[in-house]
Amino acid sequence: MQTEYDDFRSSVRRLAADKVAPHAADVDDQERFPQEAWDALCAADLPGLPYDEELGGSGADLLSQVIAVEEVAAACASSALVLLVNWAGTSTVVSQGSDELRSEVVPRVASGEAGAAWCMTEPTVGSDLSGIRTSAVRDGGDWVLNGQKRFISNAPWADWYAILARTGERDFGVLMVHRHDPGISFGPHEKKMGMRGSPTTDVALDDCRVPARRVVGDPVQGYRYINGELNGSRALIAAQALGIAQGAFDAAVAYTGQREQFGQQLSRFQMLRGMVADMAVKIESARALLYDAVRLISDDDPRARARVSMAKLLCSDNAMSVATDAVQLHGGYGFVRDYPVERMMRDVKITQIYEGTNQIQRLVIAKDVYAGQARA
Prior knowledge:
This protein has helices spanning 2-30, 35-43, 62-75, 77-96, 99-111, 222-258, 270-298, 304-329, 340-348, 358-371, and strands at residues 116-119, 135-139, 142-153, 160-166, 172-178, 184-186, 200-211, 260-261, 264-265. By secondary structure, the protein is of the alpha+beta class. The protein folds into 3 domains: 2-114, Orthogonal Bundle (Butyryl-Coa Dehydrogenase, subunit A, domain 1), CATH 1.10.540.10; 117-219, Butyryl-CoA Dehydrogenase, subunit A, domain 2 (Beta Barrel), CATH 2.40.110.10; 223-371, Butyryl-CoA Dehydrogenase, subunit A, domain 3. The chain has a 4-stranded antiparallel sheet with strand order 2-3-7-6, covered by helices on one side. Strands 1-4-5 form a 3-stranded mixed sheet. A two-stranded antiparallel ribbon has the order 8-9. The longest helix is centred in the middle third of the chain and has 37 residues, at 222-258. The chain is globular, with a radius of gyration of 21 Å. The two termini are 24 Å apart. Its cofactor is FAD. Keywords: FAD, Flavoprotein, Oxidoreductase.
């Protein structure tokens, strides 16, 4: 089994090195969609990894998805984000949607012909999803949505938007909105510090009308559905952070192995060797925790919730540290865009913020510690 995962990792790593990495700097500089990378990922059938074969996918497990995100993120974090957001945007449809809705949405996403996004954040709502104001009201055979979603990754590129909306005073539903539905529109492109190749805009819903078949499962259980998908999505964000860290580490090791100062390679200096050793430990310890969390998620173990919060926290915090040290090891060259570590340092910051800030992850972990759920 391990050989199977190793072979898969090697194949994605070669793909990322050959087809993704060469375009990463231009994608970042031009703030454009990573089309070359997306075409390569589609040709390798990676968009279909998490979906069953009858929906056009390959039915790969969560660990395979994590490995794919890691390896793509090591080359281009924006490309990895487009991929994993597609999976997140369809996760509730796959787990809770009707057969009809799954057939309508998933196959074209699995093939890469269509994109997906999930829409939770609003102008005044981030981590506290219970404060969502976007509404969905039943009107005959349709639902009518009104509200605004903010910082939506894959918008406006995506075709499908999983909208978490208030369907009652204390009830929430998830509704699938298509980019061509009447009443949906998109804001201007966000000018971001990092992840510049990931399209990000507001999604506005102004009397947006969708047919009743587009409600995911029970229209009053959406909050529970979304929370049920957070374990998997947080594992993928942790993997993205870990991949960026690995990419920055590899670049720093290569640079210090070639660059000479005072008549010898930088890699011969003891203080630099200590930094590299610390970076290696941070990456491998974060990877071990993430893979343990993936195991618990796959086993439906109740400890998974706290463990994946630990993994998301450790992977992103360690990745920020590793990327910063990678810039330091490049000296002045790390501060210019000619070297990828500058981009990686900017890209990795958001992994400490989205999919639940690391402060929120600490609260989740502490709650489970006191409840006795976080113990190995």
